[in-house]
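Inputs:
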Amino acid sequence: MIRHAALFTGYELRKSFSNPVWPLFGLIQPVLYLLMFAPLLKTMTPGGTTVDALRMFTPAAMLMIAVFGALFSGFGLIADLRNGSLERHAVSPAWRPAIVLGRVAKDMVMLVLQAVLVLVVAFAMGVRIGVVELVLMLLLMAATGLFASSLSQGLALTVRDENGMSQTLNMFTLPLMLLAGLLVPIAFAPSWMRFLAPANPLYHAVEAGRALFHGRPADPSVPIAFGVFVALAALTTMWSMRALRKIAG
Amino acid sequence: MKEPIPQMIIQARGLRKTFTTRSRKGAQTVEAVRGVDLDVAEGEIFGVLGPNGAGKTTTIRMLATLIVPDAGTATIAGHDLLREPAAVRRALGYVSQAGGVEDTTSARAQVLMAAKVHGLADPKRATAEVLARFELTELADRPARTLSGGQKQRVAVAIGLVHNPPLLFLDEPTTGLDPQNRANLWERIRQLRESGTGVLLSTHYLDEADALCDRLVIVDHGVIVAEGTPAELKREVSGDVISLRVDEPERAAATLKPLARETRLDDDLLRVYVDDGERTLPVLLRALQEQRLGLTSIALDRSTLDDVFLAKTGRTLRDAGAAA
Ligand SMILES: Nc1ncnc2c1ncn2[C@@H]1O[C@H](COP(=O)(O)OP(=O)(O)OP(=O)(O)O)[C@@H](O)[C@H]1O
Ligand SMILES: [Mg+2]
């Protein structure tokens, strides 16, 4: 089982890197976020130094990558549904959940790579963060990515069509993004938004991320975020594995 | 392996599958497969011939453990389809109608992955061997999207064969290929006989079933309408078929009926089934002349599987395909 999961992870990773242009884009995108958004945000943050802005924005950028990078990975699965390779794997002796888990694991590896890159850039721009906070931040990002990636695989297997998939994702992403305070902290938002925000799981992750970047690992937002995302990730992972059963009896 | 080696690689009894689809017009049920029995011997090339929508893919998908039959049982390579799907999967190679080749990565990567998933001792070597066997070595490291249709189909079969399964499913392997590529693939499928690999092949091409299969079933609307070797099936219908275009087809049919085993009228094409075409032809022409029936064209052919299909279902395969 583990062997098959590892096999599929390696296969998917090699596939990603066999065409080096796409992963490169994926890696560079978050860096661009930092370079472009931080100066913009600087003018909006009280206090006003770049480092302050980055402390606000770096965790948000990392979580944004985790969610929005992984949410789109299901499109690959739809392509493989169409070309029949998914069905072929389902007829092989492979442990079936490995087919989905391999893709999710690939997304996680990519996320970690991206996260490291973002952190290096942030570091170069003057942001400092403790080891505990750093590890917690990476774990939080991993849980978020696990949730988003398996949600995406499950959606792909349920919707099975590129159009339906992008419609569904669009419907999700906008409120998810706005109500999380990714770009602008929710504290600046009107009260009805502040009221709604806690219903958005991503909001908790962003709050926790900001607490970590401000050196407050004991902040209550941290355990809340972990609780929410570990639970959600467990749910979506189970769901995506079940969804696979539909195509394969 | 202590188990006795089974003579039959597939034994299926009473397979059934009904699909229910919900649309705006309400729920719709399709009885895709309605009680199919199959007996495929080891190393045999066995055909499932039928028009679009006959239930070929559904049958193969059930046997490949992809969908659970509503009813029926099957034993594949000595393992029960429903109770031991994992053991069944180990014995299978499966090439779906879609092919199952990913565009984004190379043929080698995909074959190698299949070899590893099957736990082969030396996956690299097995991969190199099967690629060489299908003359893909030169193309193996390009992204599969750059391959031609025929090359891609060879990759699909190579992936299905890398672990040397005793049974290979080929779902319409040559659909969409040009005649040259078809002939090429046929040759490779025939070679599987030598390696003792059993093949279950679905097709809606008569010539393909005729040219490749040791035995076949003809399916229509989810049921088997005929079964046997291509020669047996054709003999069952009749030796030869004389096709005529005449001015008054109805009267001509009535005139020729006593001379034939069977006559069949399709629009203005009259088919006359006879045992010995060469001898019957002159007699038949004389009869037409005596009745002053004008003749536009005439052709004498050995009966084909299409005639078998026509005899069993009352439609030609081409019509059945167009109606589906
Ligand atoms: N998943 C499904 N849901 C609903 N109906 C289905 C499904 N799969 C197949 N069918 C229906 O079952 C019938 C048999 O389909 P099947 O794919 O087995 O035919 P086929 O013989 O393989 O045809 P073709 O030559 O076109 O590939 C068709 O009427 C088809 O519309
Ligand atoms: Mg089919």
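Chain A touches chain B through 24 residues (CB under 8 Å). Flag for discussion at group meeting.
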